[in-house]
Design brief:
single chain, 156 residues, alpha/beta, 5-stranded mixed sheet
Length: 156
């Protein structure tokens, strides 16, 4: 990677859930987005998108890259508790390798939900505290009521 690659007019950004540990944002769709992630110190990427949503970009090989598909409102179904636990395991593995960026298409439902699961499981926040925290650090957070119910179930 060229260290001085200019990030021109990029609207792509990330929000740190845990500074230099866990970041969240929308799906990277251009090499410029990956340059931005690299510049921010991201070492791993966890995509929660299905294969139809992912745009193939040349430089994903710069990162420890993993896809773990979680359903969103468009599929008409919720992830299972097992799905969330398995996705959380993948996230924790990637975080052990360095700063990790988790994304879905718009970073509104799936990626905030997984980050809230992380906060509940690892940082011992209540589901409500996790939601409030995520809304502060990532204002796009807007899970469905059914997804919040799932987070409460996950916590039990």
């Amino acid at each position: 990677m060229h260290q001085n690659y200019p990030i021109k007019n990029s609207k792509f950004k990330l929000d740190w859930v845990l500074i230099n540990e866990l970041a969240i944002g929308k799906i990277p769709t251009k090499d410029n987005d990956l340059f931005y992630l690299k510049k921010k110190g991201i070492k791993s990427i966890l995509s929660l998108c299905n294969k139809d949503e992912i745009v193939e970009i040349e430089n994903f090989n710069w990162f420890n890259y993993k896809v773990f598909v979680l359903p969103d409102h468009k599929t008409g179904k919720l992830p299972s508790i097992k799905d969330l636990r398995d996705a959380l395991k993948e996230l924790k593995k990637l975080m052990n390798l360095g700063p990790t960026f988790v994304h879905c298409v718009a970073s509104v439902e799936r990626s905030p939900l997984l980050c809230m699961c992380y906060l509940v499981n690892e940082k011992k926040l209540s589901p409500l505290e996790a939601l409030e925290y995520m809304m502060q650090v990532h204002p796009k957070t807007n899970p469905l009521a059914s997804q919040l119910e799932l987070l409460n179930e996950f916590n039990n």
